[in-house]
Amino acid sequence: MEPSALTAIAPVDGRYADKVSELRPIFSEYGLIRFRVEVEVRWFEALAADPALPELPALSDDARGFLDGLVRDFDTPAAERVKAYEATTNHDVKAVEYYLRERFAEHAELGGLREFLHFACTSEDINNLAWGLALVHARETVVLPWCDRLIDVLTGLAEAHAEQPMLARTHGQAATPTTLGKEFGNVVARLRRQRHSIAGVELLGKMNGATGNYNAHVVAVPEGDWPGIARRFVEDLGLCFNPMTTQIEPHDCIAELFDAIARFNTILLDLARDIWGYISIGYFRQRTVAGEVGSSTMPHKVNPIDFENAEGNIGVANALFDHLAAKLPVSRWQRDLTDSTVLRNLGVGVGHSLIAWRALDKGLAKLDAAPERIAEDLAANWAVLAEPIQTVMRRYGIENPYDTLKTLTRGKPVDRDTFRELIEEIDVPEDARARLRSLSPETYLGLAAVLARGTD
Length: 456
Fold this sequence. Notes:
The protein is mostly helical and 456 residues long.
C-alpha cells in the first residue's frame, strides 16, 4: 500500500494533513535533516573564521557562497541522498557528514578541507542545535502568530459584546450578571499571560563535545578559546548558549516551552467547553454552511463540531506535551538514547495544537449571539438582585440583611414586584433606594463593560 494521506496511521499526516502543512518543513524528517545540514555548515564556517585553527584558512567569497547555497537550496532530493547514506551507515548524523563531504568535493577550495566537517563534534552537538532551530522557527512562524490571531479574535468579541448583559453561573447556578464581552475578556487576559511565557522561554544549545568538556577540542587545538567559540556559534544561530551539559543539552528548555504552550491550550479548552455549553442553552447560534451536514439522521442539527474538535485535539496535544516535558529532561548518567526517539514527536504536539487552533478560529467566526435568549434567562432570575440589596443594607447598619434576603429568595420564586416591595420597606437613604429601584438583572452589571473594553 502506497503511503498517502489515506494510508497514514497518524491523523496529522492523514485526515488533518492540510491543516498542519506549515509544520512539515520544520518537524518532518526532511526538516530535521535540513537543520542538521545548516548546523554542520555553519560550524565549519565558524571554525574557518577563528584564528585558533590556522590549518583551516579563511574562506573565499566563492566558498562562502557555495556553502550558503548548500543550506539555502537544500531540497527533498538532497534529503533523499542523505537517507541513502544512512541506509549504509545506520547513523543519521554521520549520513549528513558524508553527504556534505560529497558536496564539498564539488568545490576546488572546499574539497581539501573536508576533514574539518564535524570537527570535534558528537552527534548531539548537531542534533540539539537542529532541534533548537526547529523549535525557534516553529515558535516564530506558527505558534506565536496563531496565539496572536486567537487573542485578536477574542479581543474583537470582547469589544463587540462588551455591553451585552448575560446571566453568570457559578456552580452551574444563576449568579451575579456579567456581560458576554467581559467573559471573552477574561479569556484574553489569561491567554496574553501565557503568550508572554511562550515567547519568553530561552531555547538553549550546546557545542561542547562528547561529555560537555571540550575534551577533543583542547587536545587538538589547546590554544583555542573553545567556550568562547561555542558561545558565539550557538548565539549566532539564534539560540541561547548552555555552557554546562553532559553529552546532551538537557532539554529543560523544551519542557518549559511545552508547559507554556500546554497552559495556553488549557485556557482554550476551557473556552471551547464554555462555548459548547452556551450554544447548548441557546446563547449563541451557529451560522450554517451550505452543504454541511450536522447529523446523519437528524436534519435539523447544527452541531458545535469545531469546539469539540478543538477540545479533542488539545487533549491529545497536551498529553504529548506532558510526556515530553516529563521525559526529555531525564537521562541516565551522561546520556542514554531514550530522548532521541521521543524528540521526533516534537512536531506532533504542535500539530494537534494547530489543528485545535484552526478549529477554534473557524468556530468562533460562525458564532452569533442570541440576545433574546440571553434576556429570557435574565428576566427569569430576579433573585440575583438579593446581592446588591443586602450589600446596601449592610452599609446603612441594618441587622442581618444577608439572612433576610436568604429567607426571601433561597429556593423560592421571586420577581420584580418582590424586590420592589422590599426596597420600599428597608430603612435606607432615598438616593440609595433610588439606585436599587433602577436595578434589574439586565442593568446590574457593575464595571463589566468597562473591563471588557480594557482588554487592550
